[in-house]
Amino acid sequence: MKQEVLAGISVAGLLLPSAIAYAAIAGLSPDHAIVATIVGLGIYALLGRSRFAMVAPTSSSAAILAALIISMQRQVPQGALVADAAILGAGLCFLVAGALRAGALASFISRPVLSGFSFGIALTITIKQIPAIAGVTLPPNGDSGILPLIWHLTEALPQFHIASVALGVSALLSLAVLRRWRGFPASALVLAAGVLLSALVDLPAYHVGLVGAIAIAMPGLSWPALSLDDWSRIIELSVPLFLILFAESWGSIRGLALLHGDKVVANRELVALGFANAVAGLLHGMPVGAGFSASSAAESAGARTRYAGLAAMIVLIILSLWGRSLVALVPAPVLASVVIASLFHVLNPGPVLRLWHIRRDEIVATAAALAVIGFGVLDGMMIAVGLSLLALLQRFSAARIARLGRIPGTHDFVDLARNQKTETDPRILMVRPMEPLFFANAERVLAVVADLAEADSAIRVVILSLEESPDFDSTAMDALLECQVRLAKTGRTLLLARVKDDLRDLFRVAGPHWLASDDCCFWSVSDAFKAALKRP
Fold this sequence. Notes:
The longest helix is centred in the middle third of the chain and has 33 residues, at 228-260. Helix 1 packs parallel to helix 3 (59-71) and helix 1 (2-26) packs across helix 13. The strands form two sheets. Strands 4-3-5-6-7 form a five-stranded mixed β-sheet. Strands 1-2 form a two-stranded antiparallel sheet. The chain is mainly alpha-helical and 536 residues long. The termini are far apart. It is built from 23 helices and seven strands. 49% of the residues are buried. The chain has helices at 2-26, 30-47, 59-71, 79-99, 111-128, 130-134, 147-155, 162-178, 186-200, 228-260, 266-282, 292-300, 307-322, 324-327, 332-341, 344-347, 350-358, 362-375, 377-397, 442-454, 474-489, 501-510, 525-534, and strands spanning 55-56, 289-290, 401-406, 413-415, 428-433, 461-465, 493-497.
């Protein structure tokens, strides 16, 4: 238990400055983030299953919330009201997904797209902190991307305040050095130094802004008073918030679980995160998730049970009740530097560059980053989700067709293009589509199979291995029947190999009776090949 308390103290020292920083990203007062952190830690410790997950506001969800508030500004000027409704909407999405056992939703955003999106959002947040470091005020940028902001910053260069810039850069360099020691509370130490400097020096006289007083009242449960039209729009916009929270949280939870051999269930985590966000919304908080930095800090600090989260919650309550006067003295450039430092691990372009090196998914990852940079966080998120789905469809629709041959003396059939020492029969064409057949590729793939057969007059039997297709949709089913008819018109026979049970059941219901018969369907390519050799 002593180790859990020490880990909780260490994590609380990281979460308090992070909460203030993420509230600044979302354009909300720090008390929203502090309340959300307390709620997230407490509810997840009761309902979650990860030993290390620290559920609190995250940089990505804060940026998406800021974009959502801006997009609703005309309909609902009160940003805090929109935030409450959006967080509730995300919480309801989690609970519905948990009730439907839809844990696989985490896969809707692929890792390459998530890497690109995270890099783009980290770069966006970093550039949006420059005005605070420079001590200047720029025109509202909304969520139109960072290119207009860069233009405004360039125009405002003569107005940058040297003292403010020097303080911000010094804090950033200090954080870069101190964060080399894993588990060291660098952010808390730098913030404490900033508070000490603010107490000793009249920083506003040097054009250095301060965070200012934080009013933390006892929150009460309340339902956002919005019209039905406003609710429908906010629920729609809450979906990206839900997706990024779950993808980010599940990545942290699963990664640490695999590292320590723990077992976690996605559907259980959906429910825990759902209740945490729903209560955070009712208590005027912020969206919460299991961020990688806080969860990794708990693991490196020696947390072994979920009691570390409860310990961090208690420490945070104590700090928020008796440390508010100190938080008010935090210099704005120092806080901006803490925000940027919290994104150091995401600003590393290494994961995206690695994809270019291995030549896999590099286009979608880069496009996701550029979408956030060019179109803003909310639209960038929608584009990133769309890219994940498009990449999946593109991969499946461009299915490669492998021609098969038998390894001599065995029952194994392999790709002829990769294994030259194989046995074939000139009368038999054996092929295997390398992706599942479905509406986007079935007609093209099976047309290519028929073309290959018709191109060689010696071929009398075509063996189609369905190893990669556990089931068919109606389009694939119709395309298979059309392929069989086309081959039959030229005097060729179609045999099916590696046909799984679900597919056989479909053939019995939807196809001609012979399609599911033992004369057409075979469990292995070897059995189909033997049957083909017996045909005249």
